[in-house]
């Protein structure tokens, strides 16, 4: 068994695509219509283009429980998922410099350093540097 696609809820697929590619540096992998304005839209790490795909899932717009769950996780300040980085200080400075808003600056957690940012699409996301 392998992990190939992981979905995250987004309120606006086009806005999410722009944020995840232009700000975070991912690249678009798949993009095809599913009907009613929805798309199967995935991005991948530019460093692992055959690695796991991140599905920018429009579920909060069509499925009330997904909308409620996304809001509850965001309101609690919890990250929806996390991304590994080699140097959290450098990545934090790069993202902050291009306008990404952080709710938690890089913080030492013992075996890792973490920071949490707003993806502008309804989610908090975490970057993690393993120590």
From TrEMBL:
Q: Where is the VOC domain?
A: 2-130
SUPFAM superfamilies (UniProt xref): Glyoxalase/Bleomycin resistance protein/Dihydroxybiphenyl dioxygenase
Q: What parts of the sequence cross the membrane?
A: none
Q: Which CDD domains match?
A: VOC_like
Q: Which Pfam family name is an example for this entry?
A: Glyoxalase
The cross-references to PANTHER family, in alphabetical order and at most eight, read: GLYOXALASE/BLEOMYCIN RESISTANCE PROTEIN/DIOXYGENASE, GLYOXALASE_BLEOMYCIN RESISTANCE PROTEIN_DIOXYGENASE
Q: What is this protein called?
A: VOC family protein
